[in-house]
Description:
mainly beta; disordered N terminus; 14 strands
Amino acid sequence: MAGAALAMLVITTFTVGCGDSGTDAGSSTAGTSGIGGLTRPATGMVEVLDARSDITGSQNLTQAPSWLDINWVAIAQAGNYLKFDMDLAGKVPDTMPAGIAAEWGIMFDTDSDGTPDWVVYESSSNKDGWVYGLYNYKTKERLTGPQFPGDAAHSDTKITLTVNPATLGTTKNFKWLAFTNDYIKGTDGENLQAGDKVPDNGAPENSVDWLPYP
Length: 214
């Protein structure tokens, strides 16, 4: 399954439904404190504006797809769920080009040790179509399809993920970061090409740059 393969690459080489839909998590004042600044426009809501054209990776970045470039990310309460909206610089293709796979997701540090505990993701490839899931780094359990405790959607330039926070073992506070990646499928497997992340210098391994929620 594409989602499983993609998330495993994120786990090892990170370089770069549900209840009430609630308020659109990115519709108001994303980034009013400046690029990379966290804002709290409403109770239970956080937003971060990302720099434009800041994709990193190994491919020719001038040709990297704009749907990897994050404009902003927002988290908001949606009933008993949390809704994650990611807005991108370009429209997400309904069908990926042949040989290309991509992933958009949110990582969580729920025990404040600076390493990821969970990742919720949506992925797409020409072979497998759209897949979404939740992966537990500690138990290696992966919840996809009907087992996934939430929902996922994509429309135009937006990726939306909704998840029940009780599944993460927390309903109040956690740290998070957002990412995008694309891969070219070669004879030696899926090779990471390029991606974006929020915050720009965030990373799963012992990062001091995880963002807080709320």
